[in-house]
Design a protein that fits this description.
The chain has 158 residues and is an alpha+beta fold. The chain is 41% helix and 18% strand. It has helices at residues 14-17, 31-46, 50-64, 70-79, 116-130, 142-145, and strands at 84-90, 93-99, 134-140, 150-156. Strand 1 (84-90) and strand 2 (93-99) form a beta hairpin. The longest helix is centred in the N-terminal third of the chain and has 16 residues, at 31-46. The N and C termini lie far apart (36 Å).
Length: 158
């Protein structure tokens, strides 16, 4: 498609995606729907690349949220029930722990970290808030590795 042609499809932005009108069913949906999409369908479609794609998607979304503080990010995570999140400031970044992670809490461990979307979301949000480039690496995982939390090491890139 050249620059003169416009796509017939309008992009769905964050505000529009969060606009929900379901008078009978409400705004909540089972976590199973998210997990089936993220852990079953995406991994079937993309194989090992699914984790990288989920990280990039989370990072892009985190950067588009327009958050002004880490407290706003934590409030949003509580509202969306992504997990109970704690953030600890370190010399060169942050340590972020997610308790009751939406992606994996309660699963039987599968031998690998699963929460790349959350890592990307954390990196995108913190990078946007601080106006720096950051990278998050999952160091522990509840459902992936049998750990107590899904933990992320967030490094500020220079």
């Amino acid at each position: 498609m050249n620059n003169l042609q416009k796509s017939p499809f309008a992009a769905v932005d964050v505000a529009n995606a969060l606009r929900i009108d379901r008078p009978k069913l409400g705004t909540d949906a089972p976590i199973a729907v998210f997990r089936l999409l993220r852990l079953v369908v995406l991994e079937d479609l993309f194989g090992p690349a699914a984790a990288a794609q989920a990280y990039l998607a989370g990072k892009k979304l985190g950067g588009q949220l327009g958050l002004q503080s880490v407290e706003q990010f934590l409030d949003l995570c509580r509202q969306l029930k992504l997990g109970e999140i704690s953030v600890e400031k370190l010399n060169e970044g942050f340590k972020v722990d997610v308790h009751e992670c939406i992606t994996c809490a309660g699963m039987t461990p599968v031998g690998r970290p699963l929460c790349s979307f959350e890592g990307g979301l954390i990196a995108g949000a913190i990078g946007s808030i601080l106006q720096v480039k950051v990278q998050a690496r999952e160091t522990s995982c509840i459902g992936g590795l049998g750990d107590a939390t899904c933990g992320f090491e967030v490094k500020i890139l220079k």
